Each structure stands twice: as structure tokens, then as C-alpha cells.
Amino acid sequence: MAESRFLIVRLGSLGDIIHTLPAAAALRDSFPHARIDWHVEVRWRQILEGNRDLNEVITFDRSGIASVADTVNRLRAVRYSCALDFQSLYKSALFARAAGAREVVGFSWGYAREPLATLLYSRRVHPSETHKIEQNLALVEAIGAKRATLRFTLPESSEADHWIAEQLHANGIGDFYVVSPGGGWRSKCWPAERYGALHQVLAKNFGWRGIVTFGPGEEALAAEVVAAGGDRAPLPIAMSLPQLVSLLRRAKFFVGADTGPMHLAAALGAPVVALFGPTDPARNGPYSERSIVVRKALAGETTYRRGASYSAAMLRIEVEDVVAAISRLADLR
After folding, report:
1. CA angle, residues 88, 91, 95, in degrees to nearest 5
2. Strand 254-257 to 272-276 pairing
3. Alpha-carbon gap, residue 33 to 150, rounded angstroms
4. Angle at 111 between CA 182 and CA 4, to 5 degrees
5. Closest by CA position to 9, among listed 115, 159, 120
6. What residues have CB less than 8 Å from 320, skipping those under 6 apart?
7. Tens-digit pLDDT profile for the chain (333 aa)?
8. CA 220 to chain centre
9. Among 201, 188, 146, which residue's Cα sits nearest to residue 25?
10. CB within 8 A of 330, min separation 6: which ones?
């Protein structure tokens, strides 16, 4: 297998990329001399830069047809022996097929998010496992990779470490925790005012300072958390992905919903309190022994529906529920 050339197609998003990292690591461990590239949207490149399991990160820019054509030409020039589509969407399957690999492997019809995409595969895999990480590992096992020690290879940056240290020093922050109130769908998020109320309890009882992380377009949401945080309000910081990695490595714990930063925190080994509503933690929960899931969804509320308002399942989670989970985190350290 020394001449094998593998293409991983996982275009986004952050949490899904985190869930695919162990599969990339298993490929590298199983085929140490193979070429392994990853095709990803340009906005997520930073989370893969310097990844020792990869030879190259090939980015996809949505800016126009010319950019897509250039990307396809770059992919085809490598002459991959196998392309693996971890995303199961039309666009990801089209890129996997357009790369010209001898074999295109993806998930089966019953599993794929867009089932017709599976018609572009030469081999289809139906995983029996529940969690997304294990399902991704099943995909690489289908082409001969062996599952060894689970590994998340994440970026390390001395510049990011220095920047975070400066931010903490400038704001007089010692012990801190991180909350991330955003998320792709409002229906799987927890209200901003409850994060603020949580901060008030933690500041009063333990003296901890909270740091609010947020992505592009989430500035107003972060401001809501700060406004609800009381006199010793949490500190909002906009940061790059490498800076977020550095911050989470230092945090006492993380609190957030089923979003990319939560999965990143779990992958880094930070203690995590994960708040779940319409998504199933058995499939999408934090893959870590140092985590606690808080969920109060009723039967029939696991829908994965991308709603624009807070779901009833998330609204049932009270501040007291989260404080109790944080108290239990001490037993996991």
C-alpha cells in the first residue's frame, strides 16, 4: 500500500471535521507511507493546518465556477487511488467523483443525508455503530484501515498561545471557563440570558470568570450573554480557530450546546458540560470521558430539525441543571 493515495472529502463544518480526525489518524497509522489529502472549505483550513496525518489540505472556495474548476484540476492531478466522502451530500460526492479516483467510497443510501449522492460511489458502507466518530472509522475500516488508539490531531501555535496569554493577562483573568452560545441552528441552542444567569451563579459561588466565544455573525448573541452576566460580566473574545484551540487547552471547563466549539473542547480533553435538545447525544455527543450531557428532551423530540427559534427541549434545561452538572465535573478530573 506504499503507493496508495487517499482523498478525504469533508468540506465542513467544525464539529464534523473534528469527528473525522480520528478516521484520518487511522488511515495514517495503517498506511504510513501513503499520500493522504483532505478537501475542505477554505474557512476551515486553519483547523487542519500542520496536521501530521495529512500530506496536503486542498481547499474549496465558493467564490465562483473558476475556483471550483481549479480545485477539481488540482484534485485530478494527484490521481488518487481512493476518495472517501464523509459528508454524504451532493456537493461532497461530486467532488469525490470529480477527483478521478479509481474508487469512491461513501456511506450507504439509508445513512446518507442526501441519499441520491450515493449513486456516485463505487462502494457504499452502512455503519452499525451509533456515534458519528465510530461511523467515520467504519468508513476507513472498509478500505483496510485498522482502528487503533483514538487520536485527534489539532493545531498548535506559539503565536496563538502568546495572544491568548496576553488577553488573559490584560483582563486580569486567572481561573476561567468558556461558554459558546452560538450554533448553526437556533433550535439546538440555549438562550443567551441563561448563559448570563449561569455566569452570575458561578462568579458569586466560586469567583470564576467566564469567557464567551463566538463566530462571525454571532456578535449580538455574545453581547446578550454579557448583558445578562451581571456586574462581573463574562468577557467576550473574537478569535481565530488556533486561538480558540489555545484557549480551550487552558480552560477549567466548557459549557455549550451541540456545536463545533463543544466538540473541539472535548477533543482537546477539556471537561465539558454539553447541552442537548433536538439532536441525539448518542450520535453527536462529546466523545470524551470528561464530559456530562444535560438533556431533558421528551419522546419524539429528537428531530434534527433546523428551527429558527429555541426548541422546547432546550428551554427545559434550567440554570440549576447546568450548575449541578458542573459540580459533578470534579469527579471526572
Report:
1. 95
2. parallel
3. 20
4. 95
5. 120
6. none
7. 447 999 999 999 999 999 999 999 999 999 999 999 999 999 999 999 999 999 999 998 877 777 888 999 999 999 999 999 999 999 999 999 999 999 999 999 988 889 999 999 999 999 999 999 999 999 999 999 998 889 999 999 999 999 999 999 999 999 999 999 998 889 999 999 999 999 999 999 999 999 999 988 899 999 999 999 988 899 999 999 999 999 999 999 999 999 999 999 999 999 999 999 999 999 999 999 999 999 999 999 998 888 889 999 999 999 999 999 999 987 655
8. 22
9. 146
10. none
Contacts (Cβ under 8 Å, ≥6 apart) of 299:
none
Cell numbers describing residue 89:
451530500
Which residue is associated with the grid cell 455549550? 256
CB contact at 8 A, 273 and 254: yes
